């Protein structure tokens, strides 16, 4: 599964393959790559068609710190490590 992120200011395209191969992982990696490649002091807007990525970034990540990696019925959260990394990148921007 591939991902792509575009930095509008210079039209630079970042793309690659995502493992494990899933739509959710690829879309999350696209957000991560976008955050990794933008200067921290520059405003960034993320556009995605993934409700899953939005819910993960806004609703689920804060719960990881409170409840750990197991949220629902003792099952581990999918892509918890990627979510925590994404949260760290987002926090560097605030």
UniProtKB/TrEMBL annotation:
One GO molecular-function annotation for this sequence?
Answer: nucleic acid binding
Describe the location of the RNase H type-1 domain by residue ranges: 1-94
Check the record and name the Pfam families matching this protein.
Answer: RNase_H (PF00075)
InterPro entries per the UniProt record, alphabetical: RNaseH-like_sf, RNaseH_domain, RNaseH_sf
Q: Which domain of life is it from?
A: Eukaryota
Name of the protein described by the UniProt record: RNase H type-1 domain-containing protein
Species annotation: Chelydra serpentina
Starting at the broadest rank, the lineage of the source organism is: Eukaryota, Metazoa, Chordata, Craniata, Vertebrata
């Amino acid at each position: 599964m591939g991902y792509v992120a575009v930095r509008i200011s210079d039209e630079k395209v970042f793309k690659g393959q995502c493992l494990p191969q899933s739509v959710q992982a690829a879309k999350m990696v696209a957000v991560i790559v976008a955050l990794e490649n933008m200067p921290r002091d520059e405003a960034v807007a993320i556009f995605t068609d993934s409700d899953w990525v939005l819910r993960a970034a806004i609703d689920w990540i804060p719960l990881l710190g409170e409840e750990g990696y197991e949220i629902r019925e003792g099952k581990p959260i999918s892509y918890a490590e990627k979510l925590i990394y994404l949260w760290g990148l987002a926090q560097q921007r605030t």
